């Protein structure tokens, strides 16, 4: 177990003894010894208890345990995230990009995890009940034996009614094959590279930039000297 994890484990008791503390840090779980279901139960159960006693939760989750951007590492992250989401965490740290329990990170996994987070956000949106969502007019317009694809309601809402994933490919097998049989990893690779290519650095005062660079250089020298 790394020294960083040991320090995080001691954070929770320290906060509990401070009577005015409003937040509780959820430390690392012993991820090497537990499977995804056990982590999910830890997240969900502990955070529900903390919610009941009025503490906000800062949760560390989505800890990818494996070495590559595979289906396995995606479902490990997803199950960890669901524990935090269903436990109603207020803030989720390290929710995207982690591999090997945080020892390294992946741009491709970062994109895939962002996609999962956005799907979960959509799932948690409050249910809206009004004239548009009930769509009674569309039922009348379609009529008995008709279909809804051409109704005015469908045409007005089909582009925004559902979440459109960043990474998922909804093509059938033949079309997917014709388009090069790209995996989720390959599609995520293209997305992150395009995002970096399109990035525009925000403006910053030259004196502030120089001060930040000087600070970074000083800290780097201190670290190198300590080693």
Which SSEs are present, and which pair or pack?
Layout: H1 3-9, H2 11-16, E1 23-26, H3 36-52, E2 56-60, H4 71-86, E3 91-93, E4 98-99, E5 104-105, H5 107-123, H6 131-134, H7 136-142, H8 152-157, H9 173-178, H10 184-198, H11 206-226
Parallel strand pairs: 1-2, 2-3
Antiparallel strand pairs: 4-5
Helix pairs in contact: 3-4, 4-5, 5-10
Number of strands: 5
Strand line-up in the sheet with most strands: 1-2-3
Q: Which series of helices and strands comes N to C?
A: HHEHEHEEEHHHHHHH
The chain-level structural class is mainly alpha
What is the arithmetic mean of pLDDT?
76
Distance between the termini: 21 Å
Task: List the total number of helices.
Answer: 11
Which parts are unreliable, with pLDDT below 50 for 5 consecutive residues or more?
Answer: 1-17, 22-33
Largest sheet report: 3 strands, parallel
What is the total domain count?
Answer: 2
Task: Characterise this structure.
The chain is mainly α and 227 residues long. The chain has 2 domains: 3-123, no CATH class; 131-200, no CATH class. The longest helix is centred in the C-terminal third of the chain and has 21 residues, at 206-226. The strands form 2 sheets. Strands 1-2-3 form a 3-stranded parallel beta sheet. The model is unreliable at 1-17 and 22-33 (pLDDT under 50). It has helices spanning 3-9, 11-16, 36-52, 71-86, 107-123, 131-134, 136-142, 152-157, 173-178, 184-198, 206-226, and strands at residues 23-26, 56-60, 91-93, 98-99, 104-105.
